[in-house]
Amino acid sequence: MASLRDAPRTPTSSLRDAARTTNGTSGEKIWLALEIGNTRLHWALFRGEILDNAWNTEYLPESIICQLAQSQTLDDLLLTISATQNKTREQAQEQTGGSSPPSPHLPTSSSLPPLLLASVVPSQTAIWETYPNVRVITLNEVPLKGMYPTLGIDRALALWGAGKTWGFPMLVIDAGTTLTFTAADANQCLVGGAILPGLGLQFATLGQKTGQLPLVEISKNASLPPRFALNTKEAIESGVIYTFLGGIKDFIQAWWNLFPNGKIAIKGGDRTLIINYLQVLYPEIATHLIVEPNLIFWGMREIIKLL
Ligand SMILES: Nc1ncnc2c1ncn2[C@@H]1O[C@H](COP(=O)(O)OP(=O)(O)O)[C@@H](O)[C@H]1O
Ligand SMILES: CC(C)(COP(=O)(O)O)[C@@H](O)C(=O)NCCC(=O)O
Ligand SMILES: [K+]
């Protein structure tokens, strides 16, 4: 989904102007997109409106962010990011099926690429302000109608990106640190949504807030646990996973009651696991889901066209 549907608008923003100084071989402007979630960082390198590469990293130490600001070239910058992240990069590859920090054989640039930042972690936003060419996206830049002031920018961007790419009405399910549902109607107006603890957070809470429950970790290829379990680990897996999937199914049915032709897109670190489970338990739902990890980047690309 790296191609465009709408013709690009006339570039007027400082971001786009700045981007002109950072050209790739074929002359497109190179820019970085960073989404800061509650667990980790999500990166994309764009050439103009084409997504060149997307990858995940852990949060970077403040000292490394300062070092990034000193980078002379894009290559230096990408090297600094990836040098801190070997372990995470492998995990990211495993999770996203191939995305990893781009290796530094990109065209050498004369200045740092602009960084478009969307964050739901204010303390992290603050430390990225040191990057010289950063532009923080705010909610009022997302053209969705009917948003409430404290709506997460990640939810707004993902919904906007999904709707502009596949059409409205659109429901976005983000299976990340939290599980969120965020929907808009055919008029691109927010219908609303829901927030609950994500899979990892549910397991972590049970492990941390009880006297006898172990910390359960689920691998992304795990098969479904027995529904009625006869040991503690499987009892936790059963309780969390079946209610999680049942909750997703229930929200989807409620969505289709409201909008029988409404579309559904799913993203987030647990999307693959969830899709695998849904294919077994509710295949008629699974076949209707658009699985797309980069929804927020599609949203950012749309915003950039408006700047
Ligand atoms: N390599 C990984 N690193 C961290 N979390 C992962 C990874 N692979 C899968 N996950 C799952 O994804 C969840 C985080 O979701 P994600 O969408 O990546 O983060 P965020 O909420 O920061 O946007 C974790 O709670 C975990 O269940
Ligand atoms: C709900 C969220 C915590 C999701 O963050 P994530 O799990 O993706 O890291 C984030 O979108 C947020 O802080 N939202 C503000 C509250 C709201 O959207 O209503
Ligand atoms: K997210």
Q: If you had to describe this structure to a student in words, what would you say it looks like?
A:
The protein is 39% helix and 19% strand. The chain has 307 residues and is α/β, with parallel strands linked by helices. A hairpin with a 4-residue loop joins β1 (30-36) and β2. The two termini are 22 Å apart. Residues 1-21, 88-98 and 104-109 have low confidence and may be disordered. Adenosine-5'-diphosphate (ADP) is lined by residues 37-40, 91-92, 95, 176-177, 198-200, 268-270.
Summarize the structure.
The protein is α/β, with parallel strands linked by helices and about 300 residues long. It is built from eleven helices and ten strands.
How are the elements arranged and paired?
Elements: H1 14-19, E1 30-36, E2 41-47, E3 50-57, H2 62-69, H3 74-83, H4 86-96, E4 115-119, H5 122-128, E5 134-136, H6 153-166, E6 170-175, E7 178-184, E8 190-197, H7 199-208, H8 232-258, E9 263-267, H9 271-281, H10 283-286, E10 289-291, H11 295-306
Parallel strand pairs: 1-4, 4-5, 6-9, 9-10
Antiparallel strand pairs: 1-2, 2-3, 6-7, 7-8
Helix pairs in contact: 2-3, 6-11, 7-8
Potassium ion (K) binds at residues 37, 154, 174, 176, 268.
Order of adjacent strands in the largest pleated sheet: 3-2-1-4-5
The count of β-strands is 10
Oligomeric state of this protein: single chain
Helical/strand content category: alpha/beta
Shape: globular
Structural Rg? 20 Å
From the N-terminal CA to the C-terminal CA, the straight-line distance is 22 Å
Average pLDDT reading: 87
Strand content: 15-25%
The SSE order reads HEEEHHHEHEHEEEHHEHHEH
H/I helix tally: 11
Low-confidence stretches: 1-21, 88-98, 104-109
